[in-house]
Amino acid sequence: MEIDIMTIIVGGLLAIGLFFFLAGAIGIIRFPDFYSRLHPAGMIDSMGLLLSMSGLALFTLFDGGLCLASVLNSLKIALIVVFVYITSPTATHAIIDAGMRAGLKPWTKKRNPQSK
Amino acid sequence: MTLTTRADKSTAGMVKPLHDSRENAPERRLRPIPFIITFLVMMSMWVIFSGKFDPFHLTLGVISCLIVAYLSSDLLITATTLRKIPLLWGGFLFYFPWLLWQIVLANIHVLKLVFHPDMINRINPQMVHFKSKLKNDMALVTFANSITLTPGTITVSLSLYGDFSVHAIDDASASPLPGDMESKSGRIFGE
Amino acid sequence: MEQVILYSGIALALIMALSLYRTLVGPTILDRLIGVNAIGSETTVLLIIIGVLYKKVDMFIDIALAYALLNFIAVLASARYFHKRKGLSDESNDY
After folding, report:
1. Per the CB < 8 Å rule, is C30 touching A21?
2. Does the ipTM surpass 0.95?
3. Residue A107: inside a domain, yes or no?
4. pTM of the entire structure?
5. How would you classify the pairing of strands B126-131 and B153-158?
């Protein structure tokens, strides 16, 4: 089984993207309150999706020769990323606004002075 | 406001809305250049999503894109920005790679926080309030969306006059606000 | 090449199981919503990986795009719905 340069690039992009996904999942578990958990969730949406989608788009572009259908498929994958980049701030703001209106108090260091 | 229309009389008892575009605008007429631009954008979207080039699908695309462009050409391209469209898109073209680089830097910062064993003492969640210098609505919205898109800072509320409330995860994310991002997103819209 | 993508898909499924923890345990409803949003983003990538593995990318990309749309609408609608729940703040008193 030969290892060409495309395998390395696509595999590397996918691996870094999955690492960001993993970091987002762990951050959602570890962080202390609802407001701070939104920051790793934004990390999933911005970086992990961008890297893994660009890896998959590169694979789709060069898989089975460069023809019109694969170019169109890669453009569609790029459009998914553009769409998520437009809508992700709106969704995040909707969640944090719901928390504010429901009256959840943010976790601060002052109110939890020694958290060990 | 000198002209009194039927709409004025019928809404006399109610609270008058701030911007009623139906009163200020003249009668609705089709402007050709926004129509053509909207049609071209819609048609390229259709071709990308359809992927078929036989006459049947292309005719369907032309018909539906004509309908959509007729209905919504004044929503995509408004009258005030018609002359500034190339400047606007050029500004976005220069702004987006810089924003992407800021997103990468902020991601690496939050990544270090997530995997740090002493995470609970390193984070310092806080609300930052500041007033922006920007006046344009679109510039404010672009700035707020850019703040939310970079991990570590989330826009909680934004008023019409530019009062921001931002939730930041630690001091390193909170201190550079509003920073370069404000002037750069304002420069797209000519401020 | 297919092997790399296959193992990436398996790892992504495991990460999704990790994100499910916050959806199941999370003290408030909005915490569960964050978990649901994260799982939706990961599902979009997983759908394209499945499409690559089955050699039907053109079909699965459309499904992934529709899923991304649906994820956005679902999160927006449920966030608008739950902002009136006053019992939400009582649920989060344990920290």
Report:
1. no
2. no
3. no
4. 0.83
5. unpaired
